[in-house]
Amino acid sequence: MPVTQPTGRKPRLALMGEFSAGKSTLTHLLVGLEPLPVQVTATRLPPVWISHGPAAATVVGLDGREEQIAVEQIIDVPLDSTALIRLSLPAEALELCDLIDMPGISDPNMPAEVWRALMPEVDAVIWCTHATQAWRQSEAAAWDSIRDGLSGPSTLLVTHFDKLQNDRDQARVLKRVVREAGEKFQSVFPIALNQALAAGDDAEIWQASGADAFVESLIELLVRWNDPKTQSPECAAEPSKAEMLAREAARDRGKTQTPQPESLVEGRVVPRRVKRERRSERPDRSAATAARRAPMVPR
């Protein structure tokens, strides 16, 4: 699926999947903060629309009225009268896109209309499916009902991949997910979210978690998405200045040879490759680290 440039705004990515598939943990991973409580029940939060800016939260009611609240109060908003929560955070990743953390799709206490009402605002989806029960029938049905309305390329994450007992189980699950869902997504990545969060500055753990391949792919996609020059055919093969700088910074962070995890691109499994004279380490998260030290949001 080609990248469609949103008119006058950043792309909007929805994080979707079943309850406990890792959507809030993924948000934490992407923004370098913990804006959403990961232990709350599925019925505690409506959609949370996260944008770049000073830390602030606004409740949008079903009647369209807005009320600003303290960030730590978002878990207490009344579900029966709330359409969504708008949350702004000073995270670098949010300079490239907005993230919309959706409720779990199959919660009987959370009507599907709650998240479906926002789908016209969504450009693409990062779908999280739990590795131990990956790509359930309910997920496939929900995805088939919304995929045609999206303008951008979507990603399927097989989360909690470390919960599978051994390499054989991991290979079996990934092969099945690729067979059943691979053609419905631009790319498929296995990822161990908690392992990625715990990696700190350890590049080997970061890569082993699967986060390295996924995040690098996402950043490249968003850089191209936000650069109008890459939308024209004559510039399609020429990287933008921002992308060149990003790649140069990545090369400077290490020089060892590193295998990359398998990924699925346009329905095909891409074999592991060794990048010579380059180590794609975890992006610089100094700003995110400093932000985590500040008591902006509950932990």
Structural description of this entry:
The chain is α/β, with parallel strands linked by helices. The protein is 28% helix and 20% strand. Strands 4-3-5-2-6-1-7-8-9-11-12 form an eleven-stranded mixed β-sheet, sandwiched between helices. It has a two-stranded antiparallel sheet with strand order 10-13. The longest helix has 15 residues, at 167-181. It is globular, with a radius of gyration of 19 Å. The N and C termini lie far apart (38 Å).
Characteristic terms for this protein:
single chain, 299 residues, alpha/beta, Rossmann fold, eleven-stranded mixed beta sheet, two-stranded antiparallel ribbon, 20% strand, globular, disordered C terminus
Largest sheet strand order: 4-3-5-2-6-1-7-8-9-11-12
**Average predicted confidence as pLDDT:** 77
CATH class: Alpha Beta
The best one-word shape is globular
CATH architecture: 3-Layer(aba) Sandwich
Kindly state the number of beta strands. Answer: 13
Structural class: alpha/beta
CATH superfamily: P-loop containing nucleotide triphosphate hydrolases
Main sheet overview: 11 strands, mixed
Detail the poorly predicted runs. 39-43, 232-299
Total helices: the number is: 9
Task: Quote the CATH topology.
Answer: Rossmann fold
Order of helices and strands: EHEEEEEHEHEHEHHHHEEEEH
Could you tell me the radius of gyration in angstroms?
A: 19 Å
Secondary structure: helix percent: 25-40%
- Give the tally of structural domains: 1
Distance between the termini: 38 Å
Beta-strand proportion: 15-25%
